[in-house]
Write a sequence for this structure.
């Protein structure tokens, strides 16, 4: 890497589709997503001033600028610049010196507010751009399955203070994730800074709480560790990522409910409430979620929980422990090429999200029914819910009947025609985030805003 002012770069960070393991990462349980072949891109040049100035071709996203100095203040709630500010804040709190800045343009093809993690992709892309500008290397480490030594605090699972001045869960920074190699034991900086992908995923999970959402660490880990043709088993406490090959012939189709799932706006409080309810339920039952999921007598665990928990807390608890069990069974089914079994587990997951976690909607439920009746092997809402998308599992022969049924029975009455390419589309498991060099713009042209 070099950080001269003539450098032109593109930071690329994929969205993700969670195949199974919904609303479990912030309880420390494994998840099974894929990074997808759609991404957020930040085309940028490095500037000598410690500042960020970005724009977007999307009219609703106004240009913005801010200085790279602590404390980085939040913009208005719901402002898209808060995701970029979160990335900068996380790096600064980790001890990274951001002496150079970036000027550029944000674009991409991950649908916004659809439960496909466009926001986390923007956080990751922004962090990679700032790291490139400041000559901070990203170390790949040992690859899938390697433990980082990153514990619950770094992964956003134990708590300190959030970016808005309130109480949150976990403290990122040198003490939480282990110091970046650019910081010595006394807190001073030295040359040769580097951050591993696992460390970066952990610190960005914590940093994204700057927007006020009490999430876990799945999205950032999936974005940074994506591998073509593979799902990712992501575990927490410590953070670990293990690739799982997707069998040949398995096809994934994502379809939007046309209901926006704004993590920084309307759904935020409902999401945070469920995270609080999971903690409260665990306090009532006792033990840890991982041990409870691994208990050979899960029915006994649920009977005990029903006796001590209020009905709402019991339903939240039941979703978390049964979803945790489904993730392990789904990974086994994927490794064995058992599409039917994997699909059944997806449907069970959706029913639990609908009835016990109460994050589905009437439109998402309708889409699930349409896809199953048309021949999908499995289907469920993906992402936090409260709108967003479904993900369907099909074999090659079922893709067309499923998409045709959704187009005819769900979209045509609502849109008056077929869905667009950002409404229903096939996805593949793609590679993780990175930075690539761009050719300098020709005379009279520019990659960037003036």
């Amino acid at each position: 890497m070099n950080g001269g002012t003539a450098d032109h770069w593109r930071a690329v960070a994929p969205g993700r589709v969670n195949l199974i393991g919904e609303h479990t990462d912030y309880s420390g349980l494994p998840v099974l997503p894929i990074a997808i072949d759609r991404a957020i891109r930040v085309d940028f040049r490095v500037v000598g001033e410690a500042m960020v100035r970005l724009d977007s071709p999307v009219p609703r996203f106004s240009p913005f600028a801010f200085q790279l100095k602590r404390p980085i203040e939040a913009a208005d709630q719901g402002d898209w610049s808060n995701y970029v500010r979160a990335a900068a804040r996380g790096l600064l709190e980790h001890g990274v010196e951001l002496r150079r800045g970036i000027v550029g343009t944000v674009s991409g093809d991950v649908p916004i507010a659809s439960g496909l993690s466009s926001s986390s992709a923007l956080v990751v892309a922004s962090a990679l751009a700032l790291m490139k500008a400041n000559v901070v290397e990203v170390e790949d480490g040992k690859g899938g399955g390697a433990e980082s030594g990153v514990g619950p605090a770094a992964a956003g699972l134990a708590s300190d203070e959030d970016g808005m001045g309130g109480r949150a869960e976990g403290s990122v920074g040198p003490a939480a994730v282990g110091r970046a190699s650019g910081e010595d034991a006394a807190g001073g900086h030295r040359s040769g800074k580097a951050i591993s992908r696992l460390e970066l995923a952990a610190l960005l999970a914590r940093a994204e709480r700057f927007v006020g959402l009490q999430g876990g660490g799945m999205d950032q880990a999936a974005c940074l560790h994506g591998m073509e043709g593979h799902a990712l088993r992501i575990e927490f406490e410590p953070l670990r990522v293990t690739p799982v090959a997707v069998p040949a012939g398995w096809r994934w189709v994502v379809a939007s409910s046309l209901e926006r799932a704004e993590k920084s706006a309307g759904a935020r409080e409902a999401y945070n409430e469920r995270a609080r309810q999971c903690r409260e339920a665990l306090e009532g039952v006792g033990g840890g979620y991982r041990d409870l999921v691994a208990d050979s007598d899960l029915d006994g665990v649920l009977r005990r929980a029903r006796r001590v928990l209020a009905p709402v807390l019991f339903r939240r608890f039941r979703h978390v422990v049964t979803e945790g069990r489904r993730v392990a069974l789904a990974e086994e089914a994927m490794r064995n090429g058992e599409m039917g079994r994997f699909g059944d587990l997806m449907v069970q997951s959706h029913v639990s999200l609908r009835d016990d976690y109460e994050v589905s909607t009437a439109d998402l439920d309708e889409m699930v029914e349409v896809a199953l009746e048309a021949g999908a092997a499995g289907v469920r809402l993906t992402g936090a819910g409260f709108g967003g998308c479904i993900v369907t599992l099909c074999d090659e022969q079922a893709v067309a009947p499923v998409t045709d049924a959704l187009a005819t029975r769900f979209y045509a009455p609502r849109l008056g025609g077929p869905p667009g390419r950002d409404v229903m589309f096939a996805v593949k498991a793609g590679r993780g985030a990175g930075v690539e060099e761009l050719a300098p713009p020709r005379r009279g042209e520019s990659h960037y805003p003036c």
Remarks:
- The radius of gyration is 21 Å.
- The chain has twelve helices and 14 strands.
